[in-house]
Amino acid sequence: MKSIRKFLLINLLIAMTITTTLTAIGNYYLGQKNIKRHLDTLMVLSTLSYQALLGDDLHNRNLDKIQRALNLIPRKVANYYSDDLVHFNTLKCQNNFNFQVWNQEGKVLLHSMKQPELPLTQQKEGFVDIMANNKLWRVFAIHNKKTGINTALAERHETREQLGKLIAKDDIYITLFTFPLSGLLIWIIIGRGLSSLNRVAKEVSNRAPSYLEPVNIRGVPAEIKPVVDEINMLFHRLQQALEREKRFASDAAHELRTPLAALKTQAQVALKTEDLKEREIALQNVIASVDRSTHIVQQLLTLSRLVPEASHIDDSSEVNIAKLSAEVIARLAPTALDKQIDIELIAENEDLTVYGNATALSILIRNLVDNAIRYTPESGFVRVVIDENSEYVILRVIDNGPGIPAELRARVFERFFRVLGNQSPGSGLGLAIVKQIAKLHHAEVTLGTPINGIGLEVEVAFPKEKPAQTSSL
Length: 473
What we know:
The protein is α+β, with helices and mostly antiparallel strands. It folds into 3 domains: 4-180, Beta-Lactamase, CATH 3.30.450; 225-305, Signal transduction histidine kinase, dimerisation/phosphotransfer (DHp) domain (Helix Hairpins), CATH 1.10.287.130; 317-463, Heat Shock Protein 90. It is 53% helix and 16% strand. The protein has helices at residues 4-54, 63-71, 73-77, 84-94, 157-193, 195-205, 225-272, 276-305, 321-338, 358-375, 430-440, and strands spanning 97-102, 108-111, 126-132, 135-144, 149-156, 317-320, 342-347, 353-356, 381-388, 392-399, 444-448, 456-463. The protein has a 5-stranded antiparallel sheet. Strands 7-9-10-12-11 form a 5-stranded mixed sheet, covered by helices on one side. A two-stranded antiparallel sheet has the order 6-8. Strand 4 (135-144) and strand 5 form a beta hairpin.
């Protein structure tokens, strides 16, 4: 299992290594440029200072005494350093700096503590790079026009490069020293940053299976909030699923109680009676009770499969609504013939399609046509009309049954609601299922009265355009 903390730690340290290396390289090259510029400035200032200290009366001064004092400088340096290594490096660096003072005839009047082997007397005024003994030197020379005295200061290029390397090396040492500390700090900071995830995980792990309330998002970082929101949405869906299961169980218990009781009663009658005709009637009632129970179970199972809170339709496609209606009517035709009901499909355009789930749309059409057949008296008619306008594909199911009063049309979509006085068999779930499937397909269901004023007309308007988001079954 991958660890976010280890992943971040390793990758952050790698990123730090790359950026630090690039920074060190950049600092080295930029530092070399700055060091050269700085040392050139010091050479100019030092040379001018030498010339100013020597003055214009250099010919009248004791040059041998000054030279002897210059030669004693290496021994005097030791008095200012207690560290032998520093003293050694200082003496080593002294050989990298040289100066000379000469007159117009080219005679050297003064020089640094060790006689330079460089031909500084040949240098012109200003800066120049020269090679001497396979070493590259940087030389700055000036000329005193009043006295004719020339002063030059020389420094080895190698000294400048060593200074840059020492600075870069010190940077590397500091980086290596701080790397473990950086790793520790990153580990602690990442741990504190991920503590909210641990809190959420602990809150979820300590929950009872039936506790599906949302996780508290107070104090949760913005980056983790979408994860917690999705967990809360999952809890919400699970809660609704559990509620549907409970509702299904209670609905099944409620609706099956009556037909099962009637089934038992009729079975007892059939067992006790000796009259063949009465036994036949009782057995027919048993079959009717079984049929009603089967119908109720089918309707309850269909309703339980509808998931209104989901965000897509499974196996969605373009469905030929006329062809699907013809298939449903063909399956229900025997029931209509038993009641001598004339059932008809009218579709001017047989190629009209709607976007959705074919199984769900088949259930919608079946419930509408089945309801129309159930509530239409014998020798009546049921018409299924498919039409369209600029925005919708419209499915209409028209019958000449008793219809539904206008004041009850909103309530018939409620579960188990049935109009009082209605003797037709049913469970009161058909229109609830139709309403739910239509909602999942972004369709509108309206109830009305046919033009002749008798019966019921159910209209389902499906949008022609494919919905941006559809619901799932």
